[in-house]
Amino acid sequence: MFELVVNGAFEAAHRLVDYPGKCNRLHGHSWTVEMSVIGNKLDKIGMVADFKTLKAMLMEVLDDMDHQYLNELEAFKEINPTAENLAQYIYNTLKQNEIFNGTVKLNYIKVWESPKSAVIYREDV
Ligand SMILES: Nc1nc2c(c(=O)[nH]1)N=C([C@H](O)[C@H](O)COP(=O)(O)OP(=O)(O)OP(=O)(O)O)CN2
Ligand SMILES: [Zn+2]
Where is Zn(2+) annotated to bind (predicted)? Predict the structure, then answer.
């Protein structure tokens, strides 16, 4: 089994509704997002998937959130843009990509809200 990991980043503003503290107020983060995919088949040039393809897929999702006020996006109108909800949203959006219809599987999405705090989302098996 091989596990491939690529990273992307975006900057945005958010606030956490009903949060009992300063994160209730509008503020920003530089989020780092890690995507892990797994597979056990190599193609004829020895790759599970091209890092370049994986990074482009990840950045397509992150670019839609870059320099946005996340609470105003459709995905976060009813739920808080916490690291947990961001990770699940990014995972579910990426999962729709046809690359995951074959032997390559999306393993997890890890969202770093700061260098000290991160959330991993993966599906139950
Ligand atoms: N489980 C989660 N906890 C918190 C989240 C979250 O998404 N999931 N988010 C926040 C806020 O977004 C907040 O901006 C971050 O808070 P905090 O980690 O306290 O950030 P600081 O920069 O103030 O961290 P220090 O380590 O205290 O410097 C809060 N919690
Ligand atoms: Zn925050």
Answer: 14, 27, 29
Q: What is the pTM of this model?
A: 0.96
Of 29, 31, 37, nearest in space to 6 by CA: 37
Residues near ligand 1 (Cβ within 6 A): 16, 23, 27, 82-84, 113-114, 116-117
Select from 48, 49, 7, 51 the least CA-distant residue to 30. 7
Q: Is the dihedral of CA 110, 112, 113, 118 positive or negative?
A: positive
Please give the domain boundaries of the chain with CATH numbers for all domains: 2-121 (3.30.479.10)
Give me 81's structure tokens.
């843009």
This complex has an ipTM of 0.91
What is the C-alpha radius of gyration for the chain, rounded to an integer number of angstroms?
A: 15
The residues near 16 (Cβ < 8 Å, ≥ 6 apart) are 23, 24, 80, 81, 82
Residue 33's CB is within 10 A of a number of other CB atoms, namely 24
Residue 112 annotated as binding site: no
